[in-house]
């Protein structure tokens, strides 16, 4: 089965100031993820990050290249990050199997040719969330569990943003060319994914929201600090966050999100911060 493939072109913040709701969603919302037995790839022109998914139910899902990559195989010039948000599964890379439990991650380095995604139980399939970026060097594949990553305790209940940040693919945990990924888990009653709001002009991000109960949504805040916008996001949807945009999410119910970053700087704390009083 051919992959579901879309492209998202980069936008200038001056143009985005004039976007209506429909156009904001067209350019920044990724709402086609987690289709059964289907590889989904959304190619963005922000650092050429690909946001994708694979949900093997009836059969394994193969990581296939597409014509737009002009590559003989998907990871010929790319690296890949995988985080499992569903039932137990396996990622097979050139004959080696990597079992992934819920919230576990796998880094796959440049040059891997045969990659496939498998579920242990079709009634409770694995739901693999994918980020991929161009790579200049071949780093080893690495399975990362929640116990092996760096954990940051952030925020407070008094400011409604107490959370744990699990840095699954970041400098000091696993070597990558530019891709970084992690999980943020909010405490009950907390809603903000990051305050103070910030930009980092040296890298972009994508945010994938999951764990939302039926009928619940997240209001994702984006835009320039003096020109903020918002997008309502459903369960298992993502938002592409340009380097000039702030990023924060307030849910109508509890949720978890995956952040993926790509760019020239691996310093997690490379942020230009803006207090709430400065936002418009």
Automatic annotation (TrEMBL):
Cofactor names: Zn(2+)
Binding annotation for Zn(2+): 198, 200, 205, 247
Protein's pathway: Glycan metabolism; pectin degradation; 2-dehydro-3-deoxy-D-gluconate from pectin: step 4/5
Cofactor stoichiometry and binding remark: Binds 1 zinc ion per subunit.
InterPro entries reported for this sequence: KduI, KduI/IolB_isomerase, KduI_N, RmlC-like_jellyroll, RmlC_Cupin_sf
The keyword Metal-binding belongs to this UniProt entry's keyword annotation: yes
Record key words, sorted: Isomerase, Metal-binding, Zinc
Record GO terms (molecular function): 4-deoxy-L-threo-5-hexosulose-uronate ketol-isomerase activity
Family: Belongs to the KduI family.
Main function: Catalyzes the isomerization of 5-dehydro-4-deoxy-D-glucuronate to 3-deoxy-D-glycero-2,5-hexodiulosonate.
Protein name, UniProt field: 4-deoxy-L-threo-5-hexosulose-uronate ketol-isomerase
């Amino acid at each position: 089965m051919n992959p579901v493939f879309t492209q998202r072109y980069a936008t200038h913040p001056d143009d985005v100031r004039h976007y209506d709701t429909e156009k904001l969603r067209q350019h920044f919302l990724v709402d086609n993820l987690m289709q059964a037995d289907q590889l989904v790839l959304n190619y963005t022109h922000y650092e050429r990050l690909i946001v994708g998914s694979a949900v093997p139910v009836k059969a394994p899902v193969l990581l296939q290249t597409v014509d737009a990559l002009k590559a003989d195989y998907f990871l010929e010039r790319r690296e890949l990050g995988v985080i499992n948000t569903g039932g137990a599964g396996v990622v097979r890379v050139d004959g080696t199997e990597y079992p992934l439990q819920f919230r576990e991650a796998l880094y796959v380095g440049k040059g891997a040719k045969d990659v496939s995604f498998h579920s242990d139980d079709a009634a409770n399939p694995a739901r693999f969330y994918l980020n991929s970026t161009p790579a200049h060097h071949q780093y080893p594949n690495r399975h990362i569990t929640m116990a092996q990553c760096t954990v940051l305790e952030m925020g407070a209940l008094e400011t409604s943003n107490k959370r744990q940040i699990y840095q699954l693919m970041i400098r000091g945990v696993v070597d990558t060319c530019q891709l970084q990924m992690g999980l943020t888990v909010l405490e009950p009653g907390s809603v903000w994914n990051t305050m103070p709001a910030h930009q980092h002009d040296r890298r972009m991000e994508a945010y994938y929201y999951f764990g939302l109960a039926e009928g619940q949504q997240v209001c994702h805040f984006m835009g320039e600090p003096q020109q903020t916008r918002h997008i309502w996001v459903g369960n298992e949807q993502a938002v592409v966050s340009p380097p000039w945009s702030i990023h924060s999410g307030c849910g109508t119910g509890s949720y978890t999100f995956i952040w993926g970053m790509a760019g020239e700087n691996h310093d997690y704390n490379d942020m230009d911060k803006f207090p709430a009083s400065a936002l418009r």
